[in-house]
Structure formats: structure tokens, C-alpha cells
Task: inverse folding
């Protein structure tokens, strides 16, 4: 596995998770018509700062992942840790290098996707089923952001796992074949283990411009509700909506997005890409996630950092001026404000743009059918023995 992450990107991972570290949440009004309203919270007694991964549709169960211990945590709506377990030992249920954060499935299962396969566990960590990947995965890179995980979706009365595709298709990002055959997602039928590829680069996509792109440039954001599948390909300011009502998924609508301060991501010469190479860059602009809450489509975005500043910071770092490079990067990051675009689910009309609620981490959030859940930003000057999650409603004024 070849995973290229510079020290500056590692710094970004740390800063991104603790940004906006105010200690209380307040109502934030924007667009003169919407606000965040805190309706409840849950406090989890745990040392450290595990990342919130998923919530079920009822808001009754959550999954978290704790990086220091490599543990998956199952938490109820009161903040009680129902179970915590790790699968890093040399055992048949070791999922290997984590490709995705753990996904809670209903009220009694969770799914963990790793290089060794797709693993379905009960809430105690007992293996229910392992599903092999459709092809061997020789290497991968991944971005672990709050709420950016696979989905459990319904289609034709059956439940499926909808996950980011990790297929190589016998090609790589330096070849035209890669872009012609690319599919963003795999739809997995757990019983039969049948998998269906979804989400190509549609005609007119920036990723068909003859250049090469990093994995993080096109990392998909996706969601399903009823007979509609929503997909955005990372740094492309478009949302594609597909008819998901039958086995022949077809493109229904394309929406051009207008993200404030979005730094367009350009491609590279394809000769710079080689087979087996994987690279992620979390400083680039991207649509991070899509959530469907009540009658709204909520699109989480990161506007990115000016590429010129990134080049300047890297140059300083390469000259041995690490502190200067890190300070420049941190300052640029503070000026790049993540937020959400809001659309009407029925009409697809644009309704507004909002920044994250004050005092929450800006790496992402999870959502059930009615509410959004934001993780409180930890204090920057001390190690805390608890973690807090705010249950928030998007309120129309």
C-alpha cells in the first residue's frame, strides 16, 4: 500500500478536528431564514476524542471510532457505551486496513469495511458475515471524516450496503480507461453478496478533461432516499440525482452547486500517476457529504485552501522552516470555512448556506431522518474525559 500524506496534511487532520473550539453551542442565524436549534445532547464518558461515524435512522444508536485504541464504540441515545471492541488481532474477523468508518445497521448490527472484506458484526462485535470484495485490493488511501461512511439503504423492499467503490478495474488514474470505466459506488446485497456498480463520471464531468486526479479529488459524497440516489464527486461542484426505483439506475437531474470561496481543483499530467499509487489531499476543496433530513437536502462542503499558499507552505517545509510552513498553513486553514448548502428536497430549489454551529468540530456531522448531530469541539489546552454530541434541528425562521 502506498499512502502519500505529507506532514502538512497530518497537521491539517489535527487542526481540522479541533477547529472552532468554543465551549458552548449557540444558535447561529444565516440567510435570514434558517438557524441551528439545539434540542438535546448526549455526553459520553471517555478519555480522548473518538470520531463520530454514524447514526441509525431513528437516532437511537451511534458508532464512533477511537484511533488510539483502534476500537469501535457503540453508543445509545443517552450517551451510554453499550460496547467497544477492536478487530486488529490476527483473527478471521480482522477487517485489515480500515477503508471506511463503522456503520450502524438498524438496532442490532454494524458494518465495517476494510481491505480484507466487508464485515457485518452484531453490537457485541461477534462476526455475523464476511463478504469478499469483488476484486483484490492491492492498496488504498482513505479520508476519515465525521459522518463520512457507507450507508444502509432500501431498494425494492430490501436492505443493501451502499459503499464507496474500491475497484481498480485493471487500470489506474494515469490512464484514460480509468476515467471511462470509473464508478463511484458499489451497491451490496448482503444475502446473495451480489454487487452493482453505480455513479460513473457523466458526460461533461471535469474528470473527463484528459487530466489525472488524486483519489481525494473525486471521493464521492452520497445518500439515498426512496427512489432517488444523490451523488457528488468530491471537488466537482455538481450533484447528480438518479432514479433509484428499479434495477436500471438512470440519471434524472444534475444540479450545479455554487460553493462560497471554492478553490477549483485542477488536474495533473497523467504521467505523474502510476499503478498502485494512491494519494489523498485533504486541503483541496470538496463536497464532503450529503444528508437528507426532513424535507431538505443538506450538502456539507469544504471550500479548500488556496493552492498557491499550499505551494508556499510546502516550500518552507522543504527548506527546513517547519514552524513557518505550519503557521502559514494554519492561518490559511482558519480562513477556509466549511459549511452546508441547503436545498428543498421536492423542488430542488436553493434555500441557503450556513456555517457550522458555534463550538462544534467542522470535520462533518451525522444525521438521522429528522435531526443532525454535531460533535462538540474539544478544549485545545487540556485532555478531557468526556465527549459531547449535540442533537440539532435546522429551524426555519
Result:
Amino acid at each position: 500500500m502506498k499512502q502519500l500524506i505529507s506532514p502538512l496534511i497530518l497537521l491539517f487532520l489535527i487542526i481540522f478536528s479541533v477547529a472552532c473550539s468554543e465551549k458552548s453551542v449557540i444558535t447561529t442565524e444565516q440567510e435570514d431564514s434558517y438557524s441551528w436549534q439545539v434540542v438535546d445532547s448526549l455526553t459520553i464518558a471517555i478519555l480522548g476524542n473518538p470520531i463520530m461515524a454514524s447514526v441509525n435512522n431513528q437516532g437511537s444508536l451511534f458508532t464512533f471510532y477511537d484511533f488510539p485504541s483502534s476500537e469501535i464504540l457503540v453508543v445509545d441515545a443517552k450517551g451510554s457505551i453499550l460496547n467497544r471492541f477492536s478487530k486488529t488481532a490476527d483473527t478471521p474477523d480482522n477487517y485489515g486496513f480500515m477503508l471506511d468508518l463503522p456503520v450502524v445497521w438498524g438496532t442490532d448490527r454494524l458494518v465495517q469495511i476494510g481491505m480484507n472484506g466487508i464485515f457485518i458484526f452484531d453490537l457485541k462485535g461477534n462476526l455475523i458475515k464476511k463478504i469478499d470484495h469483488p476484486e483484490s485490493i492491492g492498496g488504498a488511501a482513505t479520508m476519515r471524516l465525521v459522518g463520512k461512511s457507507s450507508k444502509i439503504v432500501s431498494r425494492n423492499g430490501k436492505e443493501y450496503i451502499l459503499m464507496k467503490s474500491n475497484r481498480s478495474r485493471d487500470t489506474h488514474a494515469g490512464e484514460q480507461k480509468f476515467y471511462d470505466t470509473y464508478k463511484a459506488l458499489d451497491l451490496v446485497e448482503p444475502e446473495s453478496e451480489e454487487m452493482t456498480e453505480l455513479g460513473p463520471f457523466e458526460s461533461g464531468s471535469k474528470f473527463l478533461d484528459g487530466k489525472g486526479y488524486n483519489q481525494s479529488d473525486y471521493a464521492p459524497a452520497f445518500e439515498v432516499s426512496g427512489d432517488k440516489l444523490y451523488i457528488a464527486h468530491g471537488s466537482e461542484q455538481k450533484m447528480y440525482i438518479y432514479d433509484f426505483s428499479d434495477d436500471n439506475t438512470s440519471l434524472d437531474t444534475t444540479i450545479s452547486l455554487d460553493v462560497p470561496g471554492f478553490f477549483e481543483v485542477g488536474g495533473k499530467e497523467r504521467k505523474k500517476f502510476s499503478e498502485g499509487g494512491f494519494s489523498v489531499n485533504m486541503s483541496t476543496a470538496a463536497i464532503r457529504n450529503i444528508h437528507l433530513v426532513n424535507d431538505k437536502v443538506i450538502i456539507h462542503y469544504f471550500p479548500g485552501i488556496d493552492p498557491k499558499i499550499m505551494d508556499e507552505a510546502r516550500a518552507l517545509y522543504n527548506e527546513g522552516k517547519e514552524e513557518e510552513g505550519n503557521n502559514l498553513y494554519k492561518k490559511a486553514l482558519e480562513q477556509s470555512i466549511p459549511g452546508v448548502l441547503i436545498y428543498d428536497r421536492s423542488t430542488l430549489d436553493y434555500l441557503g448556506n450556513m456555517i457550522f454551529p458555534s463550538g462544534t468540530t467542522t470535520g462533518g456531522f451525522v444525521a438521522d431522518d429528522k435531526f443532525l448531530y454535531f460533535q462538540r469541539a474539544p478544549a485545545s489546552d487540556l485532555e478531557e474525559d468526556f465527549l459531547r454530541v449535540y442533537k440539532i434541528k435546522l429551524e426555519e425562521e
Remarks:
- Residues 3-303+338-396 form a domain with the Neuraminidase fold (CATH 2.120.10).
- Helices lie at 7-18, 176-181, 307-318, 322-334.
- The chain has one domain: 3-303+338-396.
- The radius of gyration is 20 Å.
